[in-house]
Design a protein that fits this description.
alpha+beta, 3-stranded antiparallel β-sheet, two-stranded antiparallel sheet, 5 helices, 29% helix
Length: 171
């Protein structure tokens, strides 16, 4: 076993946000296990969470913004430079064509809500309200049901199948 340190955190790969513990050794994420003290997930760990170290440590993972060169290659650039260039391009699009030409695309509709509040503010500042996503197969029906039960697909619930009196599963 590694001499690293186990740290408690939460998985953000789906809406449950299970409690997990991660083994970190010299700044490198080495292993993930379920957090048995988490009242919500009680030590459960799905296969997505077990693969977090694989993706975090992949040799091809981007660690800095890249700017495309004319020859098709890429050069690493600083974050401040990347943000300034993206802001300039967005402003040019809005000035030329209006804010409604900008939309937010969220890939997955899962539990990684990290950009949500900031993205909504950015869209409002640019004059857009368009949000699109490719809800994952496991959640499309969930959002549809929430829309019909609660009047809004953004009213997302977490099922409590362990304490229900009746569970109907179709499919």
């Amino acid at each position: 076993m590694s001499a690293g340190k186990w740290l408690k955190t939460a998985c953000n790969l789906c809406y449950i946000n299970c409690g997990i513990e991660v083994l970190v050794n010299d700044g490198r994420l080495e292993k993930v296990r379920g957090d048995g003290s988490s009242p919500k997930s009680q030590g459960y760990l799905c296969n997505k969470a077990t693969r977090i170290p694989y993706y975090a440590n992949d040799k091809d993972r981007l660690t800095t913004p890249l700017r495309r060169r004319a020859d098709g290659g890429f050069d690493a650039i600083e974050w401040d430079v990347a943000i300034a260039e993206i802001a300039e391009r967005l402003r040019d699009i809005v000035d030329r064509y209006g804010g409604k030409t900008i939309a937010l695309y969220g890939g997955g509709g899962q539990g990684n809500h990290a950009g949500g509040a900031h993205a909504s503010g950015l869209l409002r500042a640019l004059g857009s309200r368009s949000v699109f996503n490719a809800l994952s197969q496991e959640k499309t029906g969930d959002f549809w049901v929430n829309g019909h039960m609660f009047g809004s697909q953004t009213c997302h619930t977490a099922e409590d199948v362990h304490h229900c009196d009746l569970l109907l599963v179709i499919g």
